[in-house]
Backbone:
């Protein structure tokens, strides 16, 4: 299995890091909150709300990343090292995105998001 494929697994798991941060860092997530976790998350504010928002964005972007990695492998137009580097750079961008979201650095977060989307596009372009 290639590093790029492992990065797909990491990308799948990253949103759960975000939601765990939102739910479990305040000490108020218990059995009552677990009966309706979406309502609990909707009622958060501040950096915990932003962690929940980062989770949602992670679930939105991960399918595109996974498709790009799979298609890049199948197309075979790029070397494996380059695919691995692009995939790893995407994971780094998602971690940076999460940090920017938590810190409420909106403009930087948007820039990091653009970089991540550019990396997805790059996986297609280098394999063409």
Residues:
């Amino acid at each position: 299995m290639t590093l790029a494929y492992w990065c797909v697994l990491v990308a799948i798991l990253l949103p759960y890091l975000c939601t765990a941060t939102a739910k479990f860092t305040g000490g108020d997530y218990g059995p009552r909150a677990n009966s309706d976790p979406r309502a609990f998350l909707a009622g958060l504010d501040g950096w915990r709300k932003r962690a929940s928002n980062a989770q949602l964005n992670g679930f939105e972007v991960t399918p595109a990343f996974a498709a790009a990695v799979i298609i890049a492998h199948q197309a075979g137009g790029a070397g494996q090292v380059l695919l691995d580097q692009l995939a790893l750079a995407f994971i780094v961008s998602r971690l940076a995105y999460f940090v920017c979201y938590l810190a409420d650095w909106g403009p930087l977060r948007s820039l990091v998001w653009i970089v991540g989307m550019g990396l997805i596009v790059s996986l297609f372009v280098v394999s063409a």
User: Anything to note?
Assistant: Helices lie at 3-24, 31-35, 37-42, 46-75, 80-103, 106-127. The domain at 3-127 is CATH 1.20.120.550 (Four Helix Bundle (Hemerythrin (Met), subunit A)). DSSP finds six helices and no strands in the chain. The longest helix spans residues 46-75.
